[in-house]
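INFO  loader      accepted 1 record
INFO  loader      residues=165
INFO  predictor   begin
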Amino acid sequence: MKNLKYLDDDDESHDGMEVRIFLSLEFLILRKLPNLEGLLNVERGEVFPCLSRLEILFCPKLRLPCLPFLKVLSVQGCNNELLSSIYRLCGFTNLILSGGEGLTFFPEGMFKHLTCLQSLLVHHFPKLKELPNEPFSLDLEDLSILGCGELESLPEQIWEGLQSL
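INFO  predictor   done
INFO  writer      dumping tokens
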């Protein structure tokens, strides 16, 4: 499905009735969708109300909508465009980021609104120099960093509540 741009069609209604999709979906994996731009073509009010876990693997054009019930987000094949849209997902507790071969910095403001974040895994960002020097979640307890050979320092704000590093 390399030409897929959205998971829905572009119509907001069928026969005068609003279409509601994925009402019971709890876990979604998006893998190798090179042209996927968004989950929905037209962002509607409450979407994916039960989605608690989302895995994104190699979807370079994807931008994420607001997913207020999401708890776990895993992204493999990171790029700035996708990472820039993470700030909209303020309620999740676990974030796994891997495969950012060309990235030297994370986008500014990416972690700013992640107030519920408890666990952060950053894996295989060989050129990453530093994590953003911005407020991190006070709930952050677990931080794992693997394969980030050029990482020079961690911001002071990150140390406050850590239980494991």
